[in-house]
Amino acid sequence: xxxxxxxxxxxxxxxxxxxxxxxxxxxxxxxxxxxxxxxxxxxxxxxxxxxxxxxxxxxxxxxxxxxxxxxxxxxxxxxxxxxxxxxxxxxxxxxxxxxxxxxxxxxxxxxxxxxxxxxxxxxxxxxxxxxxxxxxxxxxxxxxxxxxxxxxxxxxxxxxxxxxxxxxxxxxxxxxxxxxxxxxxxxxxxxxxxxxxxxxxxxxxxxxxxxxxxxxxxxxxxxxxxxxxxxxxxxxxxxxxxxxxxxxxxxxxxxxxxxxxxxxxxxxxxxxxxxxxxxxxxxxxxxxxxxxxxxxxxxxxxxxxxxxxxxxxxxxxxxxxxxxxxxxxxxxxxxxxxxxxxxxxxxxxxxxxxxxxxxxxxxxxxxxxxxxxxxxxxxxxxxxxxxxxxxxxxxxxxxxxxxxxxxxxxxxxxxxxxxxxxxxxx
Amino acid sequence: xxxxxxxxxxxxxxxxxxxxxxxxxxxxxxxxxxxxxxxxxxxxxxxxxxxxxxxxxxxxxxxxxxxxxxxxxxxxxxxxxxxxxxxxxxxxxxxxxxxxxxxxxxxxxxxxxxxxxxxxxxxxxxxxxxxxxxxxxxxxxxxxxxxxxxxxxxxxxxxxxxxxxxxxxxxxxxxxxxxxxxxxxxxxxxxxxxxxxxxxxxxxxxxxxxxxxxxxxxxxxxxxxxxxxxxxxxxxxxxxxxxxxxxxxxxxxxxxxxxxxxxxxxxxxxxxxxxxxxxxxxxxxxxxxxxxxxxxxxxxxxxxxxxxxxxxxxxxxxxxxxxxxxxxxxxxxxxxxxxxxxxxxxxxxxxxxxxxxxxxxxxxxxxxxxxxxxxxxxxxxxxxxxxxxxxxxxxxxxxxxxxxxxxxxxxxxxxxxxxxxxxxxxxxxxxxxxxxxxxxxxxxxxxxxxxxxxxxxxxxxxxxxxxxxxxxxxxxxxxxxx
Lengths: 426, 482
Hints:
The complex is a heterodimer. By secondary structure, chain A is α+β, with helices and mostly antiparallel strands. In chain A, strands 15-12-14-13-17-18-16-19 form an eight-stranded antiparallel beta sheet. In chain A, a hairpin with a 4-residue loop joins β13 and β14. The longest helix of chain A is centred in the middle third of the chain and has 18 residues. Chain A starts with a helix and ends in a 13-residue tail after the last helix. The model of chain A has no long low-confidence stretch (mean pLDDT about 95). Chain B is of the alpha+beta class. Chain B has five domains: about 90 residues, Uridine Diphospho-n-acetylenolpyruvylglucosamine Reductase, domain 2; about 120 residues, Uridine Diphospho-n-acetylenolpyruvylglucosamine Reductase, domain 3 (2-Layer Sandwich), CATH 3.30.465; about 110 residues, Alpha-Beta Plaits (2-Layer Sandwich); about 80 residues, Alpha-Beta Plaits; about 50 residues, no CATH class. Chain B contains 18 helices and 20 strands. In chain B, α8 packs antiparallel against α10. Chain B is globular. Chain B starts with a helix and ends with a helix. The C terminus of chain B is likely disordered. At the A-B interface, α2, β9, α7, β11 and α9 of A face α7, α8, α10 and α16 of B.
């Protein structure tokens, strides 16, 4: 139960229409919050956080809610969900500077639409762009297929503003693409799952939209053959912006996305066809041509890691390894899934070493697969599972090094352990 | 402190040849590339392994003597200078490349490896180490990591932090940690990310897995000459807006052109007020058309001449002039003060005008060589250090540049770091709250201020004090107004 005085105080701060006690849709691993608040301004958000801090009530920051299946259950009986969706403005966009500053609650789709008008992009490729918020993407350390060419949020984030556990506002970085003025606090908050501070706005460096684009699809049966193409691409000087490997256990598909100058795109299509055929592809096709068509085709590939829609018997895991080890890792995942009789679907950033694995089956089978897989591949993170299973599995993978240091950081930034307590690694 | 005893114990840890205690030899360690600030260490240690570094750190903690990490000493912000004395720990003898993993595009090396040599070494594998500061023939990768170094090509490839996969670090308590090995989606707080750019204030990097970048199939370089900076800057914006991000976009102004002309016999017309260097790379297909487009943009913006450099020899000549421009300044004045600030790219023309005004105001010539694509300016204030008035005016001119940059929405350092040079200007950019958050991070690593104390944070607002204020929690705003 939330102290009535805190509810009153929070209502006063954010306004009565921005507080709700109908909290079921905001459950984390089946546990509903005591209250959900949606501040309309950064100052309100900061005061609300300060009020919760004073009452020692834990907070769960919430953007679009698309990644709330991540992590362990909240280590508290009572908590407040703090939505950032009331903060959704573009704070500054100077197109010629190729930089933008946006509030955390803005959805990725809204940002992308604003940038499209200026022929610019932020190539993070998140699943569910219409729901995913900028703050949520950063807190969960977003990457996507095009990280191969443009990097992840780690490479594109140039400034940040956060509300710390006590309600204090602080910023780091700036609105310039190169900056070593002070510590790189962006790296600290990025991917920390809201356990150190709540991101309220972020600045990005932008990329010009490409003049030309194409997508090439190559079919391989059995799946192992696809890795001949992956190796050849890895050793070449070609510069596809994304190479996704997709597999259903029987056959595999390599989809390569190419962006750039028209002549360079043509050259890539030509070379890719030849290389795929040499690797023994069953079929090769130009699956989309032109920036718009390519973007449409890739929406479903970007969506592969989504955990919003999760079947009752489904488990979604992210496996990461050195790119050169991906073939072996996926071979293990496939063999172990077959052993446990679980259907497996895979999509991987083939040249980066990140794979999303989706399995279906009973808890016992999923448990066995997970234990065997984790024993071989320590960086195996469960990002989607039914609450009981998520509570029981070591969702963040094998034991981490440097936990002491991470605990000191957590202690320094959230001394009362009020931000997403228990959810992340410390 | 008993210095003799400290030296004796150091010798036991790193061996007799790994300790420099001779007063004359120590003088070479009294500054880095920032000659405005000096400070002599009690002793210099040259360890060869993480274990030795750990031993030195434990010893320093016991004696209460600061550790000042040092690479090649090419830094321009005093980051490697023992301002309050201490043990300078040089990485000069930790200079081995330990493993080249071409399959995964990564390399494991010690911090004393020289940037340029690393790129040469991985070239036969078809790779480069992308960060390329102008000092790359001397500076070390350890220093690059400490300062999150940039360079012309980071316009396309990103600064050092995008190229560090994980580090081995000796922490202030002497423990040795590894923060990563190149796993693309690591779990836990991003220690690698916060260590990069921390200027040696939270530990000493003793090895690193670095990311390698494929050498491009083809490169084209254009040198365009303009009557003034404005035409060159407008071309920069239009080239970028046309939907292609070049690998580098560099500008030199009239004075810089004169200096490199004299030294490298480039034969650039003296009436040129700005030289714009544009490099594009990628697969060969399309690059010539792109070159033609870029050339047209330059002509449209009033270029006096546009010279494409197609052969590697021509390209090297152009780049040599750019990268050695700072050295060529010796032809113009006995001393120079290189200022490093950043503004949003569109503010460059106005900012450059202001730099011109500052030059007139303080009666000191200022040459400009800068990363125009990033908005990273490098006014080079020319003066004679022996003249006290000029010395003072040079410092004031630099402060003027910082003020203008911040006013234009910029920051006080793009790639050189804060060190001691700019520590007192941090408050122009950051609130006490912002600095306190940084201090919190610092304290998590180095609670007793053992590493490079008195740097980065403004004087009189040391880490300890900021962190203590921070712990005051919600009462913060009241505390501040007291």
